[in-house]
Amino acid sequence: MELVVKISSEAHCHTMRQCKPGVRESYLESKFRAFCHEMYNCKFSHYYPICACGPNPSTLHYIINSDILPETSMCLIDMGQGLHGYGADITCSYPTNGVFTEKQKQIYNLVVKANRMVLAQLKPGIKWPDMHLLAERVILEGLKDLEIVHGDVDEMIENRVGFLFMPHGLGHLLGLDVHDVGGYLHHHPPRSDKWGLKNLRFAREMEENLVLTVEPGCYFIKSVLVDRAVDTGIDIDKYVNVDKAMEYAKEVAGVRIEDDVV
């Protein structure tokens, strides 16, 4: 596990250095794969790579990887290599031209803060759903400072407003499979029925030597905030400045920062 994570981390750094406007998303995918193969004879991806730019980071499992990278856009690069049956799962986010706009920097720093806050709290005995709620709190507090959401943060957490901006679980078990088994066994806590929390792939207490991902994200998804394609029951108009959220979406459709941890 340690070796495949090291290889994947180096490949991400190499891919980031190759990123430039005007190339296809598949160019970044090919650079990642080639590095792993050339440098380590590591031939197989652990899952289908996600190389998303422009509006595409707002699609959580975007795998088309065919668009041209625009001049001012965020890239969300989710790739991990496989080795001897084990696999990594790492996500980086960065601007195509290497320079953050103010809005991109604000959202990026917010997601990094959520990631680091969770990592600082992780230890045996900690409940994983509590870590998801911590990430939501950090993101909602930051969005409130940016006047994208408004209202009491505790009330927003209770009413699941965080799901609108992070519509996936905080992370998952990792090992022989990218979403490894052991999430909801009969002697573990059951899956929640609340938005966001029910997206968690496990609800266990942390144990020593568990391998998992920590991957908070913040996305501005038009189909959720504007089109209301998902009937969440969340009072979007009460809590969200939709116009301002869509202003941010033009520059930063989504940011995710994913680390593999023990």
Automatic annotation (TrEMBL):
Stretches assigned to coiled coil: none
InterPro entries to which the protein is assigned, alphabetical: Creatinase/aminopeptidase-like (IPR036005), Pept_M24 (IPR000994), Peptidase_M24B_aminopep-P_CS (IPR001131), X-Pro_dipept-like (IPR052433)
GO molecular function terms noted in the UniProt entry: metal ion binding; metallopeptidase activity
GO terms for biological process, alphabetical: proteolysis
Required cofactor names: Mn(2+)
Keyword Metal-binding: yes
Any single Pfam family the record assigns to this protein: Peptidase_M24
Domain of life, per lineage: Eukaryota
Annotated keywords: Hydrolase, Manganese, Metal-binding, Metalloprotease, Protease
Chain ranges of the Peptidase M24 domain: 2-262
Record's keyword annotation contains Transcription: no
PANTHER family: PEPTIDASE D, PTHR48480
Recorded family membership: Belongs to the peptidase M24B family.
Protein name in UniProt: Peptidase M24 domain-containing protein
